[in-house]
Write a sequence for this structure.
């Protein structure tokens, strides 16, 4: 619950500013910053957070395509077996 506005339950306070609870990219940015990971590449934490989030989105898309392919392949095998 936000300590600034108790009526808003989907927000929480972090270092004096309220942000949506569960904002993954912001949380990822904070973790990157806490561990100074941005220093290795001299890239701002928010850019790294967006990049990592897009990597996860791409991976999820690849998984969906793989599942569609496996399902299609299984259907073709089933059709072949029914003909035998």
């Amino acid at each position: 619950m936000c300590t600034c506005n108790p009526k808003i339950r989907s927000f929480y306070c972090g270092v004096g500013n309220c942000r949506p609870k569960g904002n993954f990219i912001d949380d990822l940015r904070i973790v990157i910053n806490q561990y100074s990971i941005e220093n290795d590449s001299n890239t701002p934490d928010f850019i790294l957070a967006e990049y990592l989030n897009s990597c996860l989105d791409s991976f999820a898309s690849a998984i969906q395509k793989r599942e569609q392919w496996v399902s299609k392949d299984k259907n073709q095998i089933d059709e072949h077996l029914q003909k035998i």
Summary: The chain has one domain: 24-83. The mean pLDDT is 79.
